[in-house]
Amino acid sequence: MLSTTAFLAVAMQCAATVHPDTALDVARAESGFNPLAIAEIIPRAERRPGVNSVISYLPTNRSDAVNIVRLIEARKRRYSVGLMQITSANFSRFKVTAENLFSPCTNLSIFEKIITDCYQRGGSLKRALSCYYSGNFNTGLRPEKAFRQTSYVQRIGYSPPDNGYRVPSTREDRQGRGAVPVTPPPSSPVFESWDVLREYPRSEKPEENLIETKENPHDDVQKSA
């Protein structure tokens, strides 16, 4: 089991193009930060109502993990492994084995490739998460009975920005969500006692009068007095 600090250190090195928060949330939901986690996927034809579609294994050493994988492969079932739960259907595509993927760095590097492809095709993080989970942009957005009517993106911890706020979250602001700068209303003008005709208004705020110090329009009046 990796600590949060250890996971982030590996993620920033081995999946550098994915925001660490996203990698962290996916790992938490997928494996609970266990590099040896394995999930055996029960074929649809063999699933029974009310029974989970996966069997989870949490071996305590790599040797046991490899043995579990061999048993699953002998049953000719698909499975997923490691921190980010890379599915066996992707092994040939990325030229890796289950044993390779018990390495946190290798696992994260394959995650980076998959989630990046999903994001580029889906156009949003929410759709990318669904794609990573299910291979399409919709399944991960739907509530699932097996998970108390929550969707995958909800379990990840994803939440859309609340546009009801006049002042956005600091995180949204850092991520460039386009908050429009608000110009403060101008202060009420004031007039000097000598300005009987009120021709030379001044601001109550001294900083708004700084431009006038270079060529003060009052100078001519004062000199002619």
Automatic annotation (TrEMBL):
Residues 195-225 have a biased composition (Basic and acidic residues). Residues 13-139 form the Transglycosylase SLT domain. Residues 158-225 are annotated as: Disordered. The keyword Metal-binding does not apply. Pfam families: SLT. SUPFAM superfamilies: Lysozyme-like. Keywords: Plasmid. CDD domains: LT_VirB1-like. This is Lytic transglycosylase domain-containing protein. The lineage of its organism: Bacteria, Pseudomonadati, Pseudomonadota, Gammaproteobacteria, Enterobacterales.
